[in-house]
Design brief:
The chain has 16 helices and 14 strands. With about 450 residues, the protein is an alpha/beta fold. The chain has two domains: about 220 residues, Aspartate Aminotransferase, domain 2, CATH 3.40.640; about 120 residues, Aspartate Aminotransferase, domain 1 (Alpha-Beta Complex), CATH 3.90.1150. It is globular, with a radius of gyration of 23 Å. The N terminus is likely disordered. Pfam families: Aminotran_5 (PF00266).
């Protein structure tokens, strides 16, 4: 993230109170990092976690500290106490403050480019429904191409199928290597996919690019791929960055995508569910609408998304409280990202040394998650094996970690077919990874194979 994201905010901090007032106080000067939060304070903030479980799967559902949960409850009670006052006087103002913080964090050019939605899947539906309308209304021709990564998130792939394919697009998946050794391998495969998309006189109307793929987990060279799209005349570029904010560097003006979405409940400590959808200001990109049509339809996506009927908006209102939490850490969110990256690499290297395996990518291609090869003697031979082994680790060893199956390729020498995706967040301890290490080693010593789980 660029240095502009390291500043604190000079506008007032607002904390909701049940009496309907807002307590406001001004900082005399901007603060990047107050006194660094202690280990005991961190553990207190996450004491509601099940401490018997080695939770090294932050990437799936994220986490929320107690101080933010408390702020969320205050918002919920404030609504329930006087819903009319809340709706007419607090909701829009609170969401605007959250959008403003997000705008600064991602270096968007204008507040109108930032909308808040439930999650990245909702954002994908908004963008892909717009693309489907472009096909249906004749702005794009039937048979024009859309390109997406083979490792795109399952719900996004289904959304492409549901909206874009049905509207008449020819969809091409970019086949990415895994394990991966360099960005050049990804860039090469992406160029090949664009060439296929442009074959027979077709135009490539859409590219869907992950910033961090989910499974297997790799940081994609998104700036380079967007630049290639511009050079090759791709109409619109949508970056699905579900894991990005709070996990890796984000700068909208440097990335240059038309649309970009990221969840704030994964790595930015918000309660579920909240994501932002960035849409670059352009007349050709303005026809975006929330899938739920409310009285705000036609007033712009940000306004439409800020009211989709009576529901709990508290997760969208606590962003200022989350900012206070992250600024208790040295160097704020920048420091958190750096420490999480360094820690997850160290833990990954510790595991591969113990298991005599390998990482799924170089450390430079991971953020706060990394893929770690599992011993081949475990006999992971299918997706169902990964789910059964994951359940076994949860139930027998109290370890929560996703597992990826990677089918062997013809002629290769590696026999590793399973990879654990480990995460590191501020609440994690060294002992969490030791628990995983020792659990796998115990299974290996016992001669365990996944075939036993079928019995």
């Amino acid at each position: 993230m660029a240095s502009h994201c390291q500043k604190s905010y000079l506008r007032p901090d607002s904390t909701p109170h049940l009496n309907g007032d807002t307590e406001t106080h001004l900082h005399k000067k901007p603060k990047i990092a107050p006194t660094s939060i202690s280990d005991s304070e961190i553990q207190s903030e996450f004491a509601h976690h099940d401490l018997s479980v080695a939770r090294i799967n932050n990437g799936s559902f994220g986490c929320c500290p107690s101080s933010v949960i408390s702020a969320q409850q205050q918002w919920q009670l404030k609504f329930l106490r006087q819903p009319d006052y809340f709706y007419f006087n607090e909701l829009k103002k609170g969401i605007l403050e959250s959008r403003t913080i997000i705008k600064d964090l991602i270096n968007a050019e204008h507040i109108d480019e930032v909308s808040i939605v439930d999650n990245a899947t909702t954002a994908a539906a908004i963008v892909l429904q717009k693309i489907a309308r472009d096909f249906a209304e004749g702005r794009f021709q039937k048979g024009d191409a859309a390109v997406m990564l083979h490792y795109a998130y399952g719900a996004v792939k289904k959304s492409v199928e549901a909206y874009v394919s049905r509207a008449g697009a020819y969809v091409i998946e970019v086949q990415l290597p895994f394990p991966v050794e360099s960005n050049d391998e990804i860039i090469c495969e992406f160029r090949k996919a664009l060439e296929r998309g442009k074959a027979n006189g077709r135009k490539v109307r859409l590219a869907v690019i992950d910033h961090i793929t989910s499974m297997p987990c790799v940081v994609i060279p998104v700036k380079e791929l967007v630049k290639i799209c511009r050079e090759e005349g791709v109409d619109q570029v949508f970056v699905d960055a579900a894991h990005a904010i709070g996990c890796t560097d984000i700068n909208m003006q440097e990335i240059g995508a038309d649309y970009y979405t990221s969840n704030l409940h994964k790595w930015f400590f918000c309660p579920p569910s909240i994501a932002f959808l960035y849409s670059r200001r352009s007349p050709s990109l303005s026809d975006l609408h929330h899938p739920v049509v409310s009285n705000e339809y036609g007033n712009g996506l940000a306004i439409e998304s800020a009211w989709i009927g009576t529901r709990d908006y508290s997760s969208q209102l606590v962003v200022p409280s989350v900012l206070k939490f992250v600024n208790r850490f040295e160097d704020g969110i920048e420091g958190i990202k750096k420490r999480n990256h360094e820690a997850v690499v160290k833990m990954g290297e510790m595991l591969v040394e113990s298991w005599k395996t390998r990482l799924g990518c170089p450390p430079s291609m991971c953020a706060s998650m990394i893929m770690v090869g599992l011993p081949s003697c475990l006999g992971i031979s299918s997706e169902s094996d990964t789910m059964m082994l994951r359940t076994h680790l949860r139930e027998e060893f109290r370890v929560e970690v996703p597992i990826y199956y990677r089918a062997p390729r013809k002629g290769e020498t590696s026999t590793i077919t399973g990879y654990a995706r480990i995460s590191h967040q501020v609440y994690n301890k060294f002992e969490d990874y030791v628990k995983l290490r020792d659990g796998i080693n115990e299974l290996v010593r016992a001669g365990f194979t996944c075939a036993e789980l079928l019995k």
